[in-house]
Fold:
Amino acid sequence: MSFMVKTKLLATHFPIQDFFGRELGLVKAVDGVNITITEGSTFGIVGESGCGKTTLARTILGLEKSTSGSTILGSEMSEGTEETNIEELDRAGLRELRRMIGVVFQDPMGALNPRMLVKDLICEPMVIHNQKEGMRERAKELLKMVGLNPDHLYRYPHQFSGGQRQRIVIARALALEPKMLILDEPTSALDVSVQSQILNLLKDLQKKMGLTYVFISHDLSVIRHMCDRVAVMYLGKIVEESEAETLFSNPLHPYTQALVSAIPSLDPKMRRERIVLEGDVPSPADPPSGCHFHPRCPIAEANCSQVYPDLREIKKGCHTACHLVK
Ligand code: SF4
Structure:
């Protein structure tokens, strides 16, 4: 299957400056990430808050400039031309990239201007990208696709429930017929009953439109339900990456094991002994030496604080960064 987006040793660092603009250090939000997102699949990125998930997505989208490494668009995303490095795109190329990749953020109220009618919110991307012809009809069609009534075009965001607002955000993200959607915690702000409706809607849309998803969440139950392949991030690096089922049935990295052990399950056979991690995620501005996870790792050894373990293939398609995993 062809790939849509591939990153090679992608890094996004932010300088920490004092009042006079002198550089005091670096926040390594994304640090040497290699991922491949294949066409029509859902690629999950999971990790605690501050691990770099959103910065990775923003860098793929060209909203953050990478410090080093590259993001390569596959031929599907480059209008049939050869693979393209997004660092080499000009303004027009970046504009086209944003047409091809839609984004859905966590907070639908924050994403929708409360002073605009739904019709204007959904038509806005079409106006910006000069696709005004038939846009009112398209807006109605989009509302139907996300399970809302075309009459809702003439209402304001505050007249909807949280779930309906997220449906409007999804309709807006689909306005330009993107090939890929970045879903950044799309259900975290919603009630549990509404969450499942939105997740099912996303699955239906993917099937109908052949979309590729990058699904970012801290909720492993949601990731398991939605994703084909999953990358686990810790302090800007990927510590484990594999097929979703493999990752959940046999997590290899101690951090992934702790995350998976916290998933609640009604099936007693599926329950694991809960691994409680000590302490908080360290600051990415001052990560621990060696393996960044060593201060919290329940099985850390002396040399874990000396050497950073590279991501290695342990078995076919399953990569882990821990030198104790054989
Ligand atoms: Fe734990 Fe050491 Fe493996 Fe890091 S390298 S995850 S500290 S055992």
Notes: The longest strand covers residues 23-38. The chain has one domain: 3-322. The chain has a mean pLDDT of 91. Residues 253-254, 291, 293-294, 297, 299-301, 304, 309, 322-324 surround iron/sulfur cluster (CB under 6 Å).
